Structures are given as C-alpha cells and as structure tokens.
C-alpha cells in the first residue's frame, strides 16, 4: 500500500447505502452491535485479542504514565487492562458510541474501578481536552474507524505531554499468501455470517475486513504519526501479521 492511497480507509463506511458521514455511520454501527461486541471480539480473534492488549500495555510500562487517554475505548477492555497493569492515577476513555460506553461503565463499576476510570462521549477529530494533558494516549482497534486519520493523529499528539507515548493497536492483513487465503476466508465469509446471527447487523461485520484491508499499515501508518509531529516511531507485527502495535513519542 502506498502512502498516496493510505487514507482510502476514510472512504470505507459501515453502510454503503447510507449518505451520512463516516463518523455518524460508525456511531450508529457500534450502538447497534454494543450488546454483542465483547462476545464477537473473543470469537473473531479466538481470544488472542487479550494477549495483544497485554503486549501493547508492556510498551508503556517503562514510562509509568499517570494520566492516560484511551481513544475509541469501546466497552473499556483496554482501559481496564491499562488500569490493572499500570495503576495510573486516572484513565479517561472516550468513544463516539454511547451504547459502547454504557457497556464500559457497567464493566468498570462491577470491577470497582469507577474512581480510576471515567468515560465520556467524544469525537477524536476534536478532543475536548487541553494541550499536553496526558502522559500516554492509546487506541485499540479504533484508528481505522476515524473519518480523517491524519487529523485524528494530530489531535492525539496535541493532547500528549512532551515525552509522552502514543500506542496504537490495530488489526492488519497478513503478507504470506497461504495465510492470507485462510485469513480472507475467515474474515470475508465466516465472521459476517456469525456476526449477523449474534448481533443482527451483517453490514457491521462486512465493514470489519474492508476497513482492515484499507487502513494504512506498517511504514505508511508510521508516516502518519511522524506527519503529526511524533518521533521514534516503531511497529511490531503480531500473530502472523493479523495485528500490529504502533508506538511514537512526542518530543
């Protein structure tokens, strides 16, 4: 994928016949699938997403961040993992979907973490936070849903303190042809079928592989981070290339 067409993921939307902007479609989609989201996450990744998050958290350990912003927090899994592992002073999770945030709030309350983690509905294109507020900003499986990817990175860089880390965990496509064949079979056919049975929204789970295929990967993703003013950009592919951890530091 070249950097010239790296932002084509912005043109991939959950509902092809819907004329609303991508942001509104993404909000609608996640409100629709929120009750089934955790079940589908575990089913789609065979539970490996839990391990992926743990590896991403380890990238932040040496910084010992005290204030963390978790963008596209969804049902709060990454925010909870960050709290359990790093014990920061506070984590703020934001998401477009109130339905997802309702699930996150129930989860955090049941674990007695309501004082450590707070949630609010917000758009990552215009974060309602002051400059240089957070020691770390994280995104797990969310950047491909941004309506304007470069703008999203610029906003996340803006709210990072100097020396702070941006850590992005995102699904990616395997480069090995044989692995890619099985991957395509699973993501293009099996996941949409199971997703439609569980959530009733087949379009949402068709959008998933389409957005993964279109999102910038590897060096193209790191270039977007550097264009946002971040440095020391690194990436690590996981599990035969189906997931990647990206990190960058704000000078």
- Overall pLDDT, averaged? 92
Number of strands: 7
Note the gap between the termini.
Answer: 28 Å
Instruction: Note the main sheet.
Output: 7 strands, mixed
Backbone shape: globular
Give helix % range. 40-55%
How many helical elements? 8
Order of helices and strands: HHEHEHEEHEHHHEE
- Strand % is 15-25%
Low-confidence stretches: 1-6
The Cα radius of gyration reads: 17 Å
Question: Given the helix and strand composition, which structural class is it?
Answer: alpha/beta
Read across the widest sheet, the strand sequence of neighbours is 3-2-1-4-5-7-6
Describe the structure.
With 251 residues, this protein is of the alpha/beta class. 46% of the residues lie in helices and 21% in strands. It has helices at 22-45, 48-60, 77-86, 98-110, 149-159, 177-199, 202-214, 219-227, and strands spanning 67-71, 90-95, 117-121, 134-140, 160-171, 230-238, 243-250. Strands 3-2-1-4-5-7-6 form a seven-stranded mixed beta sheet, with helices on both faces. Helix 1 crosses helix 4, helix 1 packs across helix 6 and helix 6 runs antiparallel to helix 7. It is globular, with a radius of gyration of 17 Å. 43% of the residues are buried. Mean pLDDT is 92; it is low at 1-6.
